[in-house]
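Minutes, project huddle
Topic: does the predicted pose make sense with magnesium ion bound?
PN asked that the exact inputs be recorded in the minutes so nobody has to dig through chat later. Recorded below.
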Amino acid sequence: MSNASYVGDSTRRVTTKDLQEAKRSHHRWAMLTAYDYSTARVFDQAGIPVLLVGDSAANVVYGYDTTVPISIDELLPLVGGVARGAERALVVADLPFGAYEASAEQALASATRFMQRGAQAVKVEGGERISAQVKALTSSGIPVMGHLGVTPQAVNSLSGYRVQGRGDEEAEQMLRDARALEAAGAFAVVLEVVPAALAATITKELGIPTIGIGAGVECDAQVLVWQDMAGLRGGGRPARFVKEYADLNAVLGAAVEAFATEVRAGTYPSSEHSYR
Ligand SMILES: Nc1nc(=O)c2c([nH]1)NC[C@@H]1CN(c3ccc(C(=O)N[C@@H](CCC(=O)O)C(=O)O)cc3)CN21
Ligand SMILES: CC(C)C(=O)C(=O)O
Ligand SMILES: [Mg+2]
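Predicted holo structure (tokens), as shared on screen:
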């Protein structure tokens, strides 16, 4: 690896300890979602140190409206593909809605299935209310990433994807949730759609890294859904935090049109792409 990454040692897989060390030495890093082997390879070779097999696969892979309907069985095979494509990145699997809320036993049973498909860690949404699950997982050797702020699996009780943690009461609760996750053994926490000043406070107060998505520049790391940052837009207005670093809708659309045009014209395949 060139200078692409300041996290860890380019000759071996990134560890949760490397991420703590990056926080200590003030090196920011980028996380991306991945849902298949081919893209995981590209992101891994670009030096992205952490890949998340997000339950956002519900939206960008399966076309559901929210992340609520996706099942363990729909997410598990994607983890296998990403794990086989990622040589150096730490692979984190989102536990889907319904896979961990009920008990520590349920969380352990679900997380075990993801770890056995090649994940090196799991992510769960929530703070104090799931600290028993986080303790059970971490004490069984399963690294846990937390997720606070907009927790999309709770979209039906949050009534939408509005900013979370505005006002003193909500801000104090989020700080308590973040501290509970750290105390339960989590190695990092995602902060989604949170006022930048609150995310900065949480980042300062925690010993573990914060990973922002719509949570300002003071987080230790940033994450985006890869289709969002690459301009592979679905329907609807993108969230304010989305920055498009490429226009894959245009690039891929033009390639597909060129292929179809050549097929219709009989110019593809030429002899170069044929066998004798
Ligand atoms: N493609 C994709 N990208 C994501 O970032 C993503 C998913 N899917 N699926 C699961 C959740 C849903 N997420 C979302 C979706 C919408 C907003 C959004 O539009 N928020 C408003 C907030 C407005 C406010 O409170 O002021 C926005 O305008 O940004 C935020 C997060 C993030 N996650
Ligand atoms: C946006 C990230 C943090 C996520 O949870 C997902 O992609 O499912
Ligand atoms: Mg998720």
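Observations noted during the meeting:
- The chain has two domains: 16-245, 248-276.
- The beta strands are 29-33, 50-53, 90-94, 121-123, 144-149, 188-192, 210-213, 221-224.
No decisions taken; revisit at the next huddle.
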